[in-house]
């Protein structure tokens, strides 16, 4: 079903209603993110939302997914074609709420802001040009890139976009009307006149008054009562529940997946009875493939990285299947609609595993035999962050030659975010910024934000006198914080490294070699199958998965420790045996008939273990 051209969308003069073609209109929106869904599945997910009773799709545009380097934009490859996704919504009879940021939160690395902004040591994010012109210059470049793509898709140009959100939950960050107005003016400058809206929690909205001129108001965790409150305090514009949570996000190390027991039945019934507008965040979460999963910092300052799966306990699960919540909510919504809902689309097929044994990877390569050229030493008198070196994601190796070695205590407690340490060829332990279970810390000699005691002696084949010894710190940058005041979250070794000797004296270690290991598509494609020391952790393992037919599957990494998996060059994301996620989703479009290459990089294991295939996340 195609939406016809010639529609109008506006607000009633008294601010009571959204109006479609001059008549009151209930927005029933389900949120999903094209960046988290293989392009081949976009249509299926949109149809699933429509069959649950939605008439609209809300979507974030993740700025850093499209501008990976300053001025280098990609709105075409893979699932980055936002225009195609929006046109697909229209062809499926769905309206669109567009949430382009520049900041989106979304449990996405740095809330969607490009990490290159953090190369400026004193950068201020999410602020007006008078406060930090560098930030707003980058934002202006981004919006100028979006305008010609978005403008033809607005409802007044025959497209499906009803409204454009200005920023996101800014009231939870600051109070700066000049910033929000500057963003609105950038859109106006490009000829995009709205309608606009903002999104905030009710307490933050009341405290910081984070609205824009003439813009509607959407509420995070909103319900019918909160909408009524906003209508009393802001009577000139309509209000809606902009983020209604059917589930919740999950961090590494939590006991189980969050949000499984959430029930929106009463909330949805109230919306449908009163014909109030709402957006389910999220109706389908998908997957934070690659290195894009974000992180939080709790009230005590503890770093909490997000898992790879963005299943979110949403009505449509990670693979796109209807859950029990879906069926319950579809029934509630359908009772209040004049026409029957469309049939639920057929399920996406999972891999037929009959006759397929567990994968048994074999050792393929070592990171130590795949190091690029070191950066010029002048850049690393003291180790610097990934961002200062121009790297967005992945790993980096920091190496220092110690002229004399007799053990000691190494202070890299400010590591962001996970480091394994080697003295000579020997693994000496590591440091994790995130809290880790005590049994995990004990077995791997991992410290949580604390100095690391190094061995006082080395094996005989690595004499600790008569020559320099290499001290190596392999750092993994995990998700950047995506919410709250700790948004400036650089990766790598952020402070000078100090060593405490046996006599109690401290020395700052200077003049490092630094090797950038982005683990991106190019790096993985050029990986050499070489391993001089199979006993030194930091190894790649490879397996072949022969298939006669393809289907969705999950790789069960329960037997592995911590690392990343690629299938046919596609980065499925991180695994970590502290859980709760132990399986990585692999969509069928990334598989082929015949042999499929599975590549595993593990930070700790030197022995390969089986990888089972599964049909579900858990």
TrEMBL record:
**Which PROSITE patterns did the record assign?**
GLYCOSYL_HYDROL_F35
Q: Name one GO molecular function term.
A: beta-galactosidase activity
Write down the InterPro entries for this protein, in alphabetical order: B-gal_1-like, BetaGal1-like_ABD1, BetaGal_gal-bd, Galactose-bd-like_sf, GH, Gly_Hdrlase_35_cat, Glyco_hydro_35_CS, Glycoside_Hdrlase_35
Record-level GO BP terms? carbohydrate metabolic process
Catalytic activity reads: Hydrolysis of terminal non-reducing beta-D-galactose residues in beta-D-galactosides
Which Enzyme Commission number(s) are on file for it? 3.2.1.23
Gene3D superfamilies in the cross-refs: Galactose-binding domain-like (2.60.120.260), Glycosidases (3.20.20.80)
In this protein, the active site sits at 169, 243
Q: Which domain of life is it from?
A: Bacteria
Domain named Beta-galactosidase galactose-binding: residues: 539-596
Keyword set, alphabetical order: Glycosidase, Hydrolase
Q: Where is the Beta-galactosidase 1-like first all-beta domain?
A: 383-435, 470-516
Family in the record: Belongs to the glycosyl hydrolase 35 family.
Spell out the protein name for this chain.
Beta-galactosidase
Species annotation: Paraburkholderia sediminicola
Q: What is the organism lineage in this UniProt record?
A: Bacteria, Pseudomonadati, Pseudomonadota, Betaproteobacteria, Burkholderiales
